[in-house]
Amino acid sequence: MIKIEGLTILLGSFHLKDFRIEIAEGEFHFLLGPTGSGKTLILESIIGLHKPKKGKIWIGEKEVQTLPPEQREISYVPQDLALFPHLSVKENILYGIRAKNHSLKTYEEYVGSLVQVMKVEHLLERYPANLSGGEKKRVALLRALAPKPKLLLLDEPLSGLDPSIKFEIQQLLKTLHTSFHPTVLCVSHDFEEAYLLGDKMTIFIDGKVEQVGKRDDVFLKPRSKYVAYFLGLKNLYRGKVLTKEDMDRRWILGINGLRFSVPASAWEGQAEIGKEMDLYIRPEEVMILREGKSVKESLKRNIFEGEILDITNRGRHHTVLFQTIEGRIPFEISIPNYAFRNLDLSVGKSVKVALRDESLWVME
């Protein structure tokens, strides 16, 4: 287990105060935050490149914040990869094992398996100058994993790659983690990468941890509008709690004269009559109703009539901008292409939408 408590760092004008995180053994944990929020500084402090003013760092049962970097059993892959240009790929991969004076024979089978998973057998005699960007990323990851560190730190590991190469290495990383279960802390601002690879994630904004949780909990249930805005979530509205219904299993949230019936399970925080809260409508869970088609009873609580203001083809799906007639509330709806083709939608058309319970989330 990796545990950081109360990490406080002063570096120039930057001030990181009371940073805390826990990572279970074998977990792939993402640290997500805006550019300039101090994510890389946190990694460098865990390694031992910066001395914290306060705080403790545990790796396993060992407290390491006072130890030099080479005694912390950590591997680090920086953004620039820092491969040794005078060493071949094979020598780069074995560097960490040799630096620790470990027996190469002991690691032979393990390293051979890593090489196979990352598909670099044909590159072993080459030098970094003769590798592509994607190949360099693979070699840097292998060099970091070869000495079996207790913690692997990754700083934007897939930045700067073409989409096809990036996806390929994402899949290799996923296989690597499934096969060998390294404990990983990865700094990134790529939400797709975090969702694909991460077991858990920490959202870090303006020097403060805003939310920690499993990927679905973070992406589908943000704790605050700050997290929602950072994740790029739209359809956020300020409303007031009006009343309870259905034997206290639901609450009514009022926004611009409209009433939204929200199940009690879709609230982050304590709902109280008269309290102002933020509603998030998930665009992929909104249904556009077809004329003449029957509507499930579970959908009838939240049906709104309105007009289509805009339609955007996103390639794999279409985004429809809908606005209610009453209250003039606009929100985006995400529709898969196969469904969009069957709906006969156009700008200016009047339609009705139904909000599934899964489309609603309310935050303090």
Briefly characterize the structure.
It contains 9 helices and 21 strands.
Characteristic key phrases:
single chain, six-stranded mixed sheet
Global Rg: 25 Å
Give the end-to-end Cα distance, rounded to a whole number of Å: 32 Å
Contiguous low-pLDDT stretches (5 residues minimum) are none
Strands in their spatial order, largest beta sheet? 6-7-8-3-9-10
Count of extended strands: 21
What class do helices, strands and sheet pairing give? alpha+beta
Global mean pLDDT: 91
Q: Provide the helix percentage.
A: 10-25%
Instruction: Please give the count of helices.
Output: 9
| Percent of residues in beta strands | 35-45%
Secondary-structure element pattern, one letter each:
EEEHEEEHHHEHEHEEHHEEEEEEEEEHEE
